[in-house]
Amino acid sequence: MFRNLNSIIQILNIVIGFFFFLSLLYSGIISIFEKEKRAAAFLFISMIIVPLIYILSAIYSYPQESIISQILFFGTIGVMIILFTPTPVKREKTVSPLKQIDERDIIFSRTDLEKDSNRFKKYYQTHPEKKIYDEKFRQNPGLLSNKAKHFDPLQFYAADSSMSITAHLRTITDGELAKQQTKLPSKQIADFIRGWAKKLGAKEVGITKLKNYHFYSHGGRGEDYGKEIKSNHKYGIVFLVEMDKKMFESSPKGPVIMESTQKYFEVGSIGVQIAEFIRNLGYSARAHIDGKYQVVCPLVAKDAGLGEIGRMGLLMSSKYGPRVRISVVTTDLNLPADEPCVDNTIIDFCKMCKKCAVNCPSNAISHDEKQKIDGIERWQINSEACYNYWTLVGTDCGKCINVCPYSHPNNLLHNFIRFGIKNSFIFRRMALILDDVFYGKKPSEKAPPKWMKSDK
Ligand code: SF4
Ligand code: SF4
């Protein structure tokens, strides 16, 4: 009987060996396509060594053969059980921010302030503590400047054209309502909006009931500067589009800003069309897009169930990580709201990961625990340090987005890892170690695709 059991275990070890061979071969091929040479090398070496251990232990005779086969087999099963058994994650209390953000305080509004204008003087009279930082970035070449460190005429002018067409969209975020309301069940309209937004290019769509803290207290850009934000809109529809990982691999160089500006346009145009559609149904609706926000998009997206706010202060979608751009449509049309995001596995991962903080060239991302800010525990980045770096290099950097383990492309390999990360805290710890082994603690910068370079 023991002999039979041993034969079965040896056959199973051969099967496990082949399973590992195929899985590692597939992962290695994916890594080659992703141009991840280091990961591919590790995977192909493992593809030879790991299956050999299982297969040779089963087909050769040696002393203590049966004991070693059993240790190998039951050890493997044990490790699988440990890695894949779901473990509960401590649910963190979702606490709402206590106060609204004033858009005039965000770095982009401060950048817009024209030196020595009345707005400029008034702002720094009331916020003298900010002047010292802002003076620093005002002396730098600036975003998309031809004097910036990573200036590349093709890449920078391409990004500039995406920004310019987004600026046109800002003029049509709001408009006239149809005279007559179309009465349809709210679920039917919500399903249509979700389906159509996805057809238009959104990867994720969420709906939430709006709270006070979703809105800025005052506008900070253009003609809205200083105006108190008042809205009777009760619902926010959130759209996420995915940014291409490849465009981030040469961060902080030009492809990053080409991608982010293009995606601001894409997600903005979805928002503008959906808002127009809702107004055609006879309900008030306004799109919130780059440079024309009344709401804080990541907070609305989190409450619409689309992600968590991670260490780098951006929305982290569990499928796309921080590689997303967001737009929102607010409306008085009643819609069925989604559940807020309570994916604490993202926060648990961020607590131990710190890869974005380690790789940030301006040390803008905290290595510490979350702090209590405006009533909620969160990480806050040093936006002045971050923006100062942007104005030196001329792009929006994106190194933190590139290195984030959640940013890997959407394919079977990385989706399997995402599943494990969500499922078990032991898997999360293993995934973090393997991410450093395969991709490096400080992943090296890759060259932009050839067609993008001005100096071929
Ligand atoms: S790099 Fe790590 S710590 Fe930073 S946001 Fe991504 S998962 Fe969180
Ligand atoms: S964009 Fe660059 S500078 Fe800014 S926080 Fe991310 S890594 Fe740091």
Please state the structural category. Answer: alpha+beta
Global shape:
globular
Low-confidence stretches: none
**End-to-end span in angstroms?**
70 Å
The domain tally reads 2
How many individual helices? Answer: 16
Rg over CA atoms, rounded to whole Å, is 26 Å
Percentage of helical residues? 40-55%
Associated small molecules: iron/sulfur cluster
Tally of DSSP β-strands? 8
Describe the strand arrangement of the main beta sheet, using strand numbers. 1-2-6-3
H/E series, N to C?
A: HHHHHHHHEEHEHEEEHHEEHHHH
Strand proportion: 5-15%
Mean pLDDT: 93
Largest sheet: 4 strands, antiparallel
Descriptive account of the structure:
The chain is an alpha+beta fold. The protein folds into two domains: 2-84; 103-387, no CATH class. It is built from 16 helices and eight strands. It has helices spanning 2-33, 37-59, 65-84, 107-112, 118-126, 128-138, 153-169, 186-199, 254-280, 297-303, 344-353, 355-359, 383-393, 399-403, 412-423, 425-439; strands at residues 204-209, 235-242, 285-288, 308-309, 315-316, 324-331, 371-373, 376-378. The longest helix has 32 residues, at 2-33. The radius of gyration is 26 Å and the shape is globular. It starts with a helix and ends in a 17-residue tail after the last helix. The mean pLDDT is 93. The structure holds iron/sulfur cluster (2 copies). Residues 360-362, 364-365, 381, 386, 389, 397-400 line the site of one iron/sulfur cluster.
Tags for this entry?
alpha+beta, 2 domains, two-stranded antiparallel ribbon, 16 helices
